[in-house]
Every structure is written in C-alpha cells, then in structure tokens.
Specification:
Helix content: 25-40%
Number of helices: 10
Order of helices and strands: EHEHEHEHEHEHHEHEEEEEEEHH
Strand order of the largest sheet: 8-9-10-7-11-12-13-14
Distance between the termini: 35 Å
Shape: globular
Radius of gyration: 20 Å
Oligomer: single chain
C-alpha cells in the first residue's frame, strides 16, 4: 500500500473526535467514512469533519471497500463486536484501549485477525510516543541496570452518578479497565507478563472498582506497585528503578513530554521531545507504516503484549471480585 491511507471511524464520541482531529493533520491520511448506531450522529460527525460518507450502522462501514483501516472508538464493552465485524470483513483495525472486556474476547479478536491475515493493533498511544520509545531504548541498553521496581498510578475524581458509564457494570465500568490499563501496560512494556498478581480494591455498590491497588511480581525479583482510581486525583506519575539508576516521569506519564534519568555518580539527565505530547498522530502513523509495509501486527504494540495485559487485568479482577454481566462464565 502506498500513498494516502483511507480511514473509517466507528463511533462518534469524544475520543473519536479527538483522534479524527489529529488524524486529519497528517498529510498522508484521509477519513472517508464514519459509522454510528445513530444515522443522525454519524451525519453530524461527517459534517463536522468533512467526511464524505456517514453510515447509521456498523456493517456498512465494515463493507466499504474504499476503507483501508477502521478506528474503533466505541466504549470497550462493544470492542469485541465492532472490531470483530470489521476484521471479518477484511478491514484492518486500530481498536481503542482497553482492548476488550477480558482476555477471552481479546484472544478471539487476535484469532480472527491472524486467521484472515488482517492488521490489528490496540490503540495504546503511550507505546508509540517518541519519549516512551526513547525510555525503552535506554532501559534495554542497560542505562539503569536490571529493573527492580516500577511505580505508576492513574487516578481522577470521576462521576458520582451510578448511571454513568464509568460506574456501570454492564458497560465494563470501574477504574481498572479505563485507567488501570495504563499503569499495567507501562509495567509490562518493560517487564513482560508478571508471574504473580496481588490486588485490593474499594468497590462501588454497583460492583465496579473505584480505587484499586496492584502488586505485580516477576521471577527475576522485579516488582511493580500500581494503582488506579475514579475517586481520587493521584499524581499520574511513573518511575522505573534499576540496579544502576532510575527514570522518573512527571505528571502525565502516559503521554509525556520528557523524563529524567538518574544514574549513579552522574548528574541527572533530562530527555525531552519538542511538539505536542497529547496527540494521536504517533499511533496513526505507526498503523499506516505497518499497512504500507504489509505488516499485520505492529512491533511497537504487539498483539501478544496486548493479550498479556488483558490476562493481567483479568487476574486483578479475579482478586478484587469484579464481574461484568456480559461476560461468559469461562475466561481465557
């Protein structure tokens, strides 16, 4: 594939609008279609962004032969259905995080993509940003020695209304899937899937997690202390400590403008990258690079890594006792 990559956008909420705004600033990207379960919503979104085709159902977008890749921006409880529909139709998919409700659904999507030889990637923008990529390079080059601990948190004061999506079990609500996916993904980017998972949480009367703490352990001796919350404004910072130094991220570690490297016997080194940090362009550019190269998976956001994160999120929910009505009894 060469030249302009033609995108379809599935869903019309806030994150779909933010992604489309950033995507349209890339000279080699074009948004040719949008779909929603509401024809009126799709039409309004198309008019707002100058998109030529608006569909009032998902299937029409999946069947559109002029679409090279679909960005799935529905709430995560619908990711399995929406992304699966597009993959089965042969469309490449960039699917928002959290990837699915659970590891079983994630494995089903990955299975469809691999069986059909279609590109699929989780929209984990943190992995694609140049600052995080530079941090990974330094760690892998031994800049801080062997990793011994990771700390990361993501908390905000969320909605008090029990009917809100973040408080609704039927929508996969709670802090863990919406916010905790970032600290978990950060730790597993560096250490891989943990060998042990411990967790504790404050649950809402509706049965979703409001405030969750996690302790992950690896046979190497490394640990990760992570937390997420929709009832408290946490620092939103992260750090990685090793046998020869540490790396510290300021507030907003998941879309950082820089970090500080502390090494034994040296002055602190600050690493920054100019430009916007809160942009979806890096992940969109990676998708388009993969499509042009004929790759069906991204080396920056590998599907096996996504599956591993979903297994960890499942394990945390098992420990804290969160179950969603839409889930089958048997999990992967």
């Amino acid at each position: 594939m060469g030249g302009t990559v033609r995108w379809g956008v599935l869903a019309t909420g806030g994150i779909a609008a933010s992604f489309t705004t950033d995507l349209l600033q890339l000279p080699d990207a074009e948004v040719v279609a949008v779909a929603s379960r509401s024809a009126a919503s799709a039409t309004a979104f198309a008019e707002r962004f100058g998109i030529p085709r608006a569909y009032g159902d998902w299937a029409s977008l999946a069947a559109d032969e002029d679409v090279d890749v679909v960005y799935v921006a529905t709430p995560h409880a619908a990711h399995r259905a929406a992304a699966g529909l597009c993959l089965e139709a042969g469309r490449a998919v960039l699917c928002e995080k959290p990837f699915t409700l659970n590891a079983r659904e994630a494995a089903e999507l990955v299975g469809i993509a691999r069986r059909r030889g279609v590109f699929l990637m989780e929209a984990m923008w943190m992995y694609c940003g140049p600052v995080v990529r530079r941090m990974v390079e330094l760690v892998r080059d031994g800049a801080i020695g062997e990793i011994r601990s990771v700390h990361a948190d993501f908390g905000l004061v969320g909605p008090a209304d029990p009917g809100h999506r973040l408080r609704d079990p039927a929508a996969g609500g709670g802090a863990l899937l919406d916010l905790g996916v970032y600290p978990v993904s950060f730790a597993q980017l560096l250490l891989g899937e943990p060998d042990r998972v411990q967790a504790d949480a404050l649950l809402s009367p509706e049965g979703v997690d409001l405030n969750t703490g996690m302790l992950l352990g690896w046979d190497s001796g490394a640990t990760a202390m992570l937390s997420c919350s929709i009832v408290s404004d946490t620092p939103l910072t992260a750090s990685v400590s090793g046998t020869a130094g540490r790396i510290e991220f300021p507030r907003g570690f998941f879309y950082p403008e820089g970090f500080v490297l502390h090494r034994d016997g040296r002055e602190p080194e600050e690493f920054t990258v100019p430009g916007r940090r809160d942009t979806f362009q890096h992940e969109a550019a990676e998708v388009m690079r993969c499509l042009r190269a004929g790759e069906t998976e991204s080396p920056l956001v590998p599907l096996d890594g996504t599956l591993a994160v979903m297994r960890t999120l499942d394990a945390v929910r098992d420990r804290i006792g969160v179950r969603y009505p839409a889930e089958a009894l048997t999990r992967a």
